[in-house]
Write a structure and sequence with these properties.
251 residues; alpha+beta
Length: 251
């Protein structure tokens, strides 16, 4: 990764894994902004950040369905919590269909955090974990839990029909739930997860389908749809502009 950028990721405790995928931090040490491309990754992100030009702020980002060019300001420090989809209903107790491809600002004291929490990433993760644990539901819908377990374990490669049959929940009901809760259909979400899983192979220089694509043309078409470029150009990742790919290469 670019020498001006610092990235670190921490996995959550087992107790939180149904709702939290990871905690991560990103710093831009440079005195200038960094041009980046945000790629769809199937997560809901809660950001805590500040920079040389922006005061401390908190934002909640919905699902992305397309690549988004952005600028990481100079001297940025950003801590984030990446949530799995069940968290929207059971932790935030809200939908995110209205922030598809969008980020919503939250109160600067959301969950009791402030600028001082950006001083220590490990302490931030501990505080965030305790807060999320306090919000864990007494019980969840077993059908939804099983559905998401299958989606994540398969990296989105199971068809909607296969998922429906496994959880005894009709296609129509599942898609109604997905569109109401997240703003997209189950099929689109699975395609995003399959794209993300493909990034791990592309990061290793494997430019052929590994995730149940019908053929090479289908693979190239989907990669270009979600990243804006063909697999070969994505693999080059000039100037580390595709941060998600850079982070995977760093693992």
């Amino acid at each position: 990764m670019d020498n001006d950028l610092n990235f670190k990721i921490i996995k959550p405790d087992t107790l939180l894994t149904d709702f939290v995928e990871s905690f991560w931090m990103l710093q831009n040490h440079s005195d200038s902004g960094k041009e980046i491309v945000v790629l769809p990754d199937g997560r809901i992100d809660l950001f805590f950040s500040q920079s040389a030009t922006e005061p401390f702020h908190i934002t909640l980002s919905g699902l992305e369905t397309q690549p988004d060019k952005a600028t990481l300001p100079a001297k940025t420090i950003m801590f984030a919590i990446s949530f799995k989809l069940l968290a929207t209903e059971y932790i935030f107790q809200n939908t995110v269909s209205n922030i598809l491809n969008y980020a919503r600002p939250l109160p600067v004291d959301f969950w009791g955090f402030n600028a001082n929490d950006l001083n220590d990433f490990d302490l931030f993760c501990k505080k965030a974990s305790q807060k999320i644990q306090s919000l864990l539901p007494q019980e969840t819908d077993n059908r939804k839990r099983k559905l998401f377990d299958l989606i994540y374990l398969s990296n989105g490669t199971l068809t909607v029909n296969e998922l429906s049959e496994n959880v005894f929940w009709s296609n129509r009901q599942i898609n109604r739930y997905f569109n109401r809760q997240y703003g997209i259909s189950l099929k689109v979400y699975c395609n995003i997860l399959r794209f993300r899983a493909s990034l791990e192979h592309i990061a290793e220089g494997k430019l052929f389908p590994e995730q149940n694509f019908t053929d090479q043309n289908h693979f190239i078409k989907d990669i270009k749809k979600f990243s804006g470029v063909v697999p070969k150009e994505l693999s080059k990742n000039k100037n580390d502009r595709f941060l998600l790919l850079s982070a995977m290469k760093q693992k």
